[in-house]
Structure formats: structure tokens, C-alpha cells
Amino acid sequence: MIFLVGPAVEAFGYQRIIFGTSPSAGSNITSNASYWYELARLSLAELGVEQEDIDAVFSGNAKRVYGA
Asked: Which of 2, 40, 48, 50 is deepest in the core (most CB within 10 A)?
């Protein structure tokens, strides 16, 4: 997944990425969100991303955008 995360971070920056995962409303597939969460976290860690930027991707950016 690092091959997907790296170019996205390079193109948009950490402050413009929000992590999210859920199956579509019409899907019969159950969510495996914890797997994707761990995979994305590990990918960011392998890129040498600062903890502050990781927190932004997984919560801070969404709070800023959606006003939580």
C-alpha cells in the first residue's frame, strides 16, 4: 500500500488527506476497517511521517473539515 500512499502524500500533502473506509450502502461485504487502518498507518510509518501528520490524516483533518 505504500506505493499508493506515497504518491498521494506527495501530490496533496498530509493536511489534505482524510483516511476513511466503509463498504458502500448496497454492498453485502462486511467492513474490514481495522485491517485497512493498520495497513495505512504502517505505510505512513514506512515513509517516515511525523506523528503529528499521521494524527492529521487519521483524525485532525476530518475534524477541521467537518467541524467536530
From this structure: 40
